[in-house]
Amino acid sequence: MPKKERIMLDQKVLRDKIYACWLGKNIGGTLGAPIEGRCDFMDIKWFPELGEKGCIPNDDLDLQLLNLHALEHYGAATRAEHIGRQWAEHNYFPVDEYGYAVTNLRRGLRLPLAGRYNNIFTSCMGSPIRSEIWAVVCAGRPKLAAFYAWQDAVVDHAGGEGVYGEIFNAAIEALAFTSSDIFYLVEEALKYIPTTCRVYQAVSDTIKWYKEGVSYEDLRPLLLAKHGSHVNNFTDAPQNIAIELVGFLYADNFGDGLLKVANYGYDADCTVATYAALYGIMYGTAGIPAKWSDPIGDLILLSKEVRGFKCPANLDELTDRSIRLYNMFLYEDENDDKYTITEEDFADYDVQHYTLPEGELREEAIWVTLKMDQTPGITPGGSRSMNFRIRNNTYAPWGMHLSVSAPNGCVVNSADADVTLDHGEEFNYPATVTMGADFMESQANFVLNVDRQNEEGLWKRYTIPFVLVRTSHWVVDGKEVDVDGNIICFEPGKREHVATTVFRTFKKRPSRFYISTCQAVRLFVDGKQVLDGKPFSLLRNSYSTLCPPDHEVEFELEAGTHEIRIETYGDVELNVTGEVPTDRDAVSFCFTAKKCTTPEGGRPLVAYELLDAVTG
Asked: Is the pLDDT of residue 105 over 90?
């Protein structure tokens, strides 16, 4: 098969398109942010509000600037583990999937499992909105853009529709550098995601309905009825990815498209920003009227939740840094096997990946995949079996002595092993560990020791840390239950439920409890009622400010052991369609630090789960 010719775009045209992409992102994010989460059909005609300096900070761009930082550090070698490392250091966003992914990374879980464990938000929009950075550095090369989009998306959406949404967006935007035919772009971009995923089906149906003559007004209820997940789940990816396309199908110009996308509602800052960025790539700055660009300007405003790295001061600097990366990536062949999203990548997200030496590319290193028999949650007194699949992708034989080390209070039940692997050979090393019945820490930190041998002696010890998370112990409706994660499931059919536990914190701290449930809820701490919440139609076990105010409470919690009692009662709130939520028989218990305000006086933050506290 002849080698595909390398695409090189005219630098002047490229710069204009990249600048227009980032400008569109800022315009769309600013227009959509104030109406984010509205699920009604609106009639917006202009920016609902503007910042003091024009644009409004938005995570849609913020986390792409962090990816820019990662690319400037690691170049074409950037993989999911590098992006995850940047998140653990620089991303303090607590919202939904962001919060749970970063909590897992802070614990020491590795990707892609860290993007999946105890995370009900994997089909949301947090990753599809981060697609433009991959498109601009891989302009004209959708396969390469899709590969990096996968690396990014699994950080917080492993196994969910958010992965497919980011791959689709990155591919269509990379293609848009060489075509403005929306039907061709959609058809080609869909080739990079499975036909069975909901994003594929929502996009395909949207194009089909448009070609069948369905009107702009009538498309919305069709789309939501077939591809929406819940009337109040505004951030579900499939419906929002389809909404992004509405501006290209039904509008006559940039501004008309902005408003048509915005007025469909749901995750409006995401949909409008992606539409406008894609439009900018297709038509350049000439396609964006001054009416929309002048109020926004050239400034970049970074959210306070993302910090600690050199952020571009403005869109001009961001464009220059993007072009430098584009020119560097020109030397990468997108048809190289190392840039392929494999069937295994799509099939199994309940694994954790490591390389030896740490940071090497898996294609040229010792590649270790850890697969547990269940989740990383483990009950005191319980055991967990696992398998380490070790593959030698280096070009030299590796002789290894394998063993597992356990923390105090835990035991390793498996034998050591000796193995020598030549290039391409694999070895499966099974291990079983047991957590002591009195283990009182929130997690147990284990180590796989890989002692590399040379000339019959130890050459170097490599260590692979892995984590098991202690489950919490509750009494639920009179029965003892061990809960893996923070969602307690009740037996269906009852109108009243009671869940009790003990909570241990090792120091006095300002604290926040958030109880998410579809029923009315009361929370008691040490026998005192501290919360009385009304029914809500959606279970949102988030650390974020998007939860109902009467489902959260803040107070000073003394060091020591506290009794927790959760009572749910009464009928659930129905959807506007009259349907009963599927998560009605569940409750989520989140413990975090209290809300605080950034030092610069910005918007309030909600801290993450406090990892040293123990429940049950």
From this structure: yes
Residues 28 and 60: their CA atoms lie apart, in Å, by 10
pTM: 0.94
| Distance from C-alpha of 205 to C-alpha of 203, rounded to nearest angstrom | 5
Q: What share of the chain is helix, strand, coil (3-state, %, to 5)?
A: 35, 25, 40
Work out the number of other CB atoms within 10 angstroms of the CB of residue 343: 8
**30 φψ region: left (φ > 0), alpha (ψ -120 to 50), beta (else):** alpha
281's tokens:
């790539």
Distances (CA, A) of 102 to 70, 94, 99, 162, 607: 16, 8, 5, 16, 11
Q: Is 538 exposed, middle or buried (0-12, 13-18, 19+ CB in 10 A)?
A: middle
Strand-pairing partners, residue 562, are: 503
Using a pLDDT cut of 70, give the percent of the chain over it: 95
Give Cα 182 distance to the centre of its chain: 27
Dihedral, CA of residue 257, residue 263, residue 269 and residue 272, to nearest 10: -10
**Sequence-ordered list of residues with C-beta below 8 angstroms from that of 286, at least 6 positions apart, any chain:** 16
On the CB side of 16, how many CA atoms lie within 13 Å of its CA? 11
b/e sequence 42-61, b meaning 16+ C-beta within 10 Å: eebeebeeebeebbbbbbbb
- How would you label 357-390 residue by residue, b for 16+ Cβ within 10 Å and e otherwise? eeeeebeebbbbbbebeebbbbbbebebebebeb
Q: What are the tens digits of pLDDT across the range 179-194?
A: 999 999 999 999 999 9
> ω into residue 599 within 30 of 0, thus cis?
no
How far apart CA 454 and CA 403 sit, in angstroms, is 17
Cα 481 → chain centroid: 29
Instruction: Determine the Cα–Cα distance for residues 240 and 223; give it in Å rounded to an integer.
Output: 10
Q: Max CA-CA distance within the chain?
A: 76
- Sign of the torsion formed by the C-alpha atoms of 431, 484, 160 and 325: negative
Confidence label for 2 from pLDDT (cuts 50, 70 and 90): very low
Rounded CA separation 536/583 (Å):
11
Beta carbons of 64 and 279 less than 8 angstroms apart? no
